[in-house]
Amino acid sequence: MTLRPRTRKWALVAHIVSAGAWIGLDVTLGVLVCTALLTDDPAVRSTSLGALGLFAVWPMLVAALLTLGTGVVLGLGSKYGLVRYWWVAAKLAVNVLMAVLILVALRPGINVATEDPDGLLYPVIVAPSLLLFASVLSVFKPWGRVRKEPHDPARRNHRTDQTLRNDRRGRGPEPVRAGR
Question: How far is CA 152 from the centre of its chain?
Fold first, then answer.
């Protein structure tokens, strides 16, 4: 299944916007946690930690799931596939891992943060780093294919067929000459 160009572009926009929202939520989490850790004012600390409960788990999880869903649609609807290229597989793994960590690590950490916000320093460092890693993968597309396609003589492309037929080393077919 290949997406039509317009559909693919809209899916790509949705993917970029949801990933951007996720990065923004992570940065906001970092600002609030650092504010709570560095302030001496108990009111500022309480407000910062109270704000974490409003957006840190469910909005981040929604952004993660939207990013995952749009990424799967793009993977299935394009030449890159879901696990055809290493960079796509790595992004998929990072996205799934982070979505799970939001539920199993961040959610309980937010509940305990009122007594000890030091426990939230780890997610503040790791999550943006992983999202930056996924963004770099999207731009540079390293590592190539997961599995090289076996050489099958029956599946040669047209240019290879022309080269072999004409033995002209890829210069194209012979020009048509008028008969004498």
Answer: 33
Q: Give the DSSP per-residue string, 14-29.
A: HHHHHHHHHHHHHHHH
User: Which residue is associated with the tokens 């796509």?
Assistant: 88
74-104: per-residue pLDDT in tens?
999 999 988 999 999 999 999 999 999 999 9
Residue 41, phi then psi, degrees to nearest 5: -85, 120
How far is 95 from 151, CA to CA, in rounded Å? 33
Say if CB 120 and CB 49 are below 8 A apart. no
Q: Is the CA virtual torsion 53, 59, 63, 65 positive or negative?
A: positive
The C-alpha atoms of residue 110 and residue 8 are separated, in whole angstroms, by 37
Report the C-alpha gap between 86 and 141 in whole angstroms. 8
pTM for the structure as a whole: 0.78
Helix (H) or strand (E) holding 79: none
